[in-house]
Amino acid sequence: MRLVLVAGTTETAKIPGISAAGADPDLMRHTPGADLDVLVHGEPTLAPVVPVSPTGCPTPAVVTRAARELLGFDTLGVDAGIAGRTGSPAVDVGAGAGADVREPTAVPDAEATYERAREFGAALPDDRVVIGETIPGGTTTALGVLTALGEEPAVSSSLPENPLDLKRRVVDEGLDASGLAPGDAAGDPLTAVGAVGDPVLAAVAGLTAGAVESGTEVTLAGGTQLAAAAALVRHAGVDAPLTLATTSFVAADDSAGVAGLADSLGVDLVVTDPGFDAVDHPAMDAYVAGEAKEGVAMGGALRLIDESTASMADLRERIVEVYDRLLAGDGPAVEPAEPPEGGP
Amino acid sequence: MRLVLVAGTTETAKIPGISAAGADPDLMRHTPGADLDVLVHGEPTLAPVVPVSPTGCPTPAVVTRAARELLGFDTLGVDAGIAGRTGSPAVDVGAGAGADVREPTAVPDAEATYERAREFGAALPDDRVVIGETIPGGTTTALGVLTALGEEPAVSSSLPENPLDLKRRVVDEGLDASGLAPGDAAGDPLTAVGAVGDPVLAAVAGLTAGAVESGTEVTLAGGTQLAAAAALVRHAGVDAPLTLATTSFVAADDSAGVAGLADSLGVDLVVTDPGFDAVDHPAMDAYVAGEAKEGVAMGGALRLIDESTASMADLRERIVEVYDRLLAGDGPAVEPAEPPEGGP
Known about the structure:
Chains A, B: Belongs to the UPF0284 family. The structure is a homodimer. Chain A is an alpha/beta fold.
C-alpha cells in the first residue's frame, strides 16, 4: 500500500475569500510543497512554513503525518504544478500551475498531464494506492468540473461558511469563457478539466485510471475534490470499483452533498470520524468548528487507522505530538514507525 | 535513518570499455533511473529494464532493495542529472548530465549543484543518512577528482579487470583540457569536480556538507566514488566525522586502495562481507567473480543488515527472491517490511 499525494496549484486560489488553505494569499502558494514536506519529512524542509488557515487551523497534513508515524506506510508525491518550494521528491507529470478558472482554458496541458499520470499509475506495482490532494482553491475547480460534466454541483469548503455563491459565480464565468453550458462536457472529461479544472484533478484522474488498469486497488482520499476526480474517471469510461474515503466533517456538510455524488458515480463511500470533539486542543478544535474538514488525504489516513489496530485515541494523541512539534516548537521530527530489526 | 540515492549521468560512461554498469552503452543511460526504481518500487516502473552488466551481473540495486525489504528503511532519490526515465520521485538539485571528463569543463553547474544539495542536506530532519550513488562511468570521474585534489588516485571498477590504464589516460587528458596538473585543485573542491568530476559527486559532497552542518550522522555508502566525495568534503574544510561503508569486494581490490584513501582523509572505513561465496546463484556469483563490486549504496545496505538482527543468510535469501522476481519473471513486487499494525 502506498499513499500518493498529488500536489499542485491553481490561480483560482487567489480569488479573495475563496480558500482558507493558507494563512494569507501570498503564503498559500507554499501550501502544497509544505504539505508534502510535512507528510514525507514531518516538517517543512525547503518549504518556508507549516500551512495554517487565516484563523490558525493547522493543515490536515498534520493528521495524515500523525497516521504515517503510527502506521509507517510508504508515501509518494506527485508534482502537478507545485509553485512553492518543497524538500520532498515528487514525480513530475509535466503540469504547470493551473490558470484561474475564469480563463478560457484553465489547464492547457490537461491531456498530457492525464496521460503521463495514467502511464505512471499503470507502472506502480503497489497492490493498493490511497490518493490524496493538496491544492488551494481546488473545491472551486472541482465544482467547475462537476458542473461541466453534468454531475451534481456540490462541493465542500475549507471555510466554516462555504462561499458557495462566490464559487458558483466564478464557475459560471469560467464555463462561459470556455463556451460550455453545464453538462456540455458529459463523457468528455479532458474537455471538462481543461476548461474549468485544475492540474491536480487531471493528474489524480489519470493516476486512478492507470492504477486500476494494472489491477491496483484505488482509494480516493478526500471529499468533493476527489469525488470530482472520480467523476472524471467515470466519464472516461472506467467502471472499476473505486472507494472514496472522507472525514465525518465533509459528510456532515450538507452543502457538500458528497454521499449523493458518490452514489450517482457508483463509488463506494467510507466516512471516518476521528472523534475530535472528545478532546480540546488547538490541533483539532478548528475542525470541530467547521474549518478545513479534509485535505492532504486526511479521510484516507483516518480510514487506514480504522483498518489497523491503532485507535482514534492513539491518533489524536499523535496529532497533539505532531502539532506541538511543528507549531509549538517542541523538538525535532519523529521518524515514522519502522519494523523491528530483522523482521520480515 | 534514511537511505539517499543520488542518481545521475556522465558522458564519460560512453567511452568504450570504461564501464560495465549497463548491458550496452545505449542501455547504460537508463541505469540510474532504473536503479532508483528498483530501490523504491522493487522493479523498473517507467525505466525500461533492470540494469545488468554486459555479462549479465545484476545491478547492486538488487542487493540494496533486498535489504530494504528486510529492514523497511525510508529512502529518497536525488536527481543529479538522470538521463533516462524513472518512476521514482527524486529531489532535483538542478544538475544536468555531466560532460565527458576530457572536455574542459565536465560539470558546468558544479557550484550550483553543490549548494542546492547542501541546502537540502541541511534541511533534512533525519538523525542519520546513508548516501549512495548510481552513475555509470563514475569511477573515472572519481579518479579525476582525486587526482586534481592531489589525493591518492586509486579507484575500483565494475569490470573484473579494472581498466585503470584507460582511466588514467582519460583523466590525464581531462586535466590537460582543464589546465590542471595533479594536485592543482587541492583545497578547491568545486574546481576539481567542475573540471574532471561528475554531477553526482558534486551533489553527494554538498548533501554531506549540509547534513553534517545540521547534526545529521552521515554514512557514505560506497567505495571509491564515495571516497572521492569524501575527499571533496574534506577539501571544503568540513572536519566532521564521516563513515565510508563499502563491500568486501571493493576492500579486496588492491587496485582500489580504498583503505589507504579513507585513512588519509580521516574517514572511518567499515567493510561488510555478504558471504556471497557461500552460495551458488546467478544473483551473487558475478560479484565473487569480480564484477560490479559496489554501487547503489550496496556497502551501506550490507552495513545496515550487519547493524540489525537480520543475518547475511537472510539477506542472501532475499536477494535470490528479488533476483528471481526481476530477472526470472517470477511475480509481482514485494512491499518493504511495514511495522505491525498499531505499532508505536
